[in-house]
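#random but structural
TW: two for the price of one
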Amino acid sequence: MAKKLLDFQDVLKEELKDKEFKKFYEEEGRRLALGYKIASLREKLGLTQEELAEEIHTSQATIARLEG
C-alpha cells in the first residue's frame, strides 16, 4: 500500500499542538506582518529604504531587517 505524503498544512496542524512551537510561530507571523506593513507604507510614500532610514535616524540595513 502506498504511503500518503503529508502536505504542509497537515504537518503544521500537528506542530501547532506544541505550545512552544505555536508561540514562536505566531510571533514570527506578527513580525512578518509588521515588516510587510513597513515596506508597503514606505513604498506608498515613494521612499527608498535609505531615505526612510535617514528620516527615522537609523541605517538602511536596519530597515532591510525590519522589512525582511
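TW: number two ↓
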Amino acid sequence: MIILGLLIVAGVTIIGITITTRLKDVSQNDIAVDMPDVIQAYAPKGSQIRAVDIDDGFLFVSLAAPEGDIVIIIELKSGKVLRRLNILDEP
C-alpha cells in the first residue's frame, strides 16, 4: 500500500514538472515582442478571410477570393509576405 502511494506521488510530481517546463518553454518563445506594429498584405477585391493560423513564427491567412482560394504566408518577425498561394479551379 505504501509503495502504491509513493508511485502516485512520484507520478504527480513528474506531471507537474513536465507542465511547468513546457509552460516555461512557451513563454520564452513568445514572438509577439519582435513583431512589427503593422503588417500589410493585399488581397483581391471581394475576398473574405476564411482562417488565420500562427505556427513557428509564421502567419497563415486563408482567403476565399472571387477567382479562387488564396493562402498568404507572412513572417511575423519581419512582417514580410513570403509566399502567396493561389488555388485556382482546373481549366
